[in-house]
Amino acid sequence: MGRSQETFNKKEVRNKKEKKRKEKEKKRLARKENDKTTSPDDMIAYVDENGMLSSTPPDPNKKKVVKAENIDLAMPKRDSGQNADPIRKGIVTFFNDSKGYGFIRDLETQESVFVHANSLTEEISEDNVVTFEIVLGPKGASATQVKLFK
Predict the structure, then answer these.
(1) Could you tell me which of 135, 130, 67 has the C-alpha nearest to residue 104?
(2) Domains of the chain (ranges plus CATH)?
(3) Lowest mean pLDDT, pick from 73-77, 118-122, 146-150
(4) pTM above the 0.70 mark?
């Protein structure tokens, strides 16, 4: 059967596919010729005493012996001094009376703590020194029982 009814575009598509197939075959043969069999020993990587990957095995003389009892898996215990006084001292860095919220900079940790007007026991304004307690709310730490420091 002849290909008399083939259009120019169909011939181009067929030629491109044939060319692509031949290039793929050439690449496969080239890979096959250049393929060097690698042994599993060539694929091994070692970790040295500093935690870096290397191709040479570590020196057994530098090996450190660690006892399993000395590894601490628990959370570090908090100092009892932190929980002794829950009342903190800070400076009001921002307070918006119309919106009813602001922020206090803790003098100990220098962290900014959110404060809402409902948590105030006295009127406050910016740059006032206040005492407050920290409670964890749904969006993070917030100050409660805020009053002016005298």
Answers:
(1) 130
(2) 82-148 (2.40.50.140)
(3) 73-77
(4) no
